[in-house]
Here is the input.
Amino acid sequence: MALNLVFLAFVCALAGYGAFYSKRRIYRSIDRMLDCVLSREEIEYSDVKEGELSALANKITRIKEVLEKQIQSAEEEKEQVKGIVSNLSHQLKTPLANLSVYTDILTGQEMDEEQKTQICEKLKRQIDKLDWIIGSLAKMVKLEQNVIVFEAGAYPIKDTIRDAIDSVYEKIEKKGLSIESEPYEDRLLYHNKKWTAEVFVNLLENAVKYTKRGGAIQIRVKPYEMYTEIQIADNGCGIKQEETSQIFRRFYRGSQVESIEGSGIGLYLSSLILEKEKGYMTVKSVYGEGSCFSVFLQNCKNNLSP
Here is the structure.
């Protein structure tokens, strides 16, 4: 009897030790897996067999993957913000320096009314440039973060193009450029009139900026089955072939136009606008001969009759 009791106690002790050892092993396995999550190392499955521990290991692995994606996204956003701040500082540096110089000239020198008027005009141009840069940056950020409620619909494209031309016509005349528009039938296209006019204004202003005096700007409208293409072409300085794939990036400016005033925001902002309208933009250019930017907008079912 006593022997039986001793044997039973021994069996219970073994069972208790086995349970303790099993729990300790599970604890150590979980602890190692959590260390891998914290140190962002690969989780080892060598000692994990099928069962509850295996299921737990899979869940921890999924948690690790989610955390890795969130960390990567946060790091990308951090780099993006650093890039924006750096580029913004660069873009604002020149107009702010010019404002300081013109203010010093205006306040520190004796000059007649004509000279004062010229300096004041230069000051105004720099203020307008600052206003445009800051305004464009605000629009860019709002579009990127979907803060703006972007409403688009079926509108005649001719009115939108006309509004854009009216906005830059004074600059076109002042530089002695000609603007030509091939005859085309008005069409109902899916777009937001105000924002799309801004796209055309950006393209027209670039054409004015990079085309020599006496040059020409052409506007062509070509309908297709699903989209309509609006071309804005110039015979200006053109774009190097290796740079055409980069010009739609934020703050990018081609090497051949770095000495010309600009911010590198307009084309990127235009691409964001067209993306919201389910449209897109392409460019064809020959360096030294000119560029042709094509805006593609979706056709609407109930289009205008010929």
The helical segments are 2-39, 52-108, 113-144, 157-174, 193-210, 266-276.
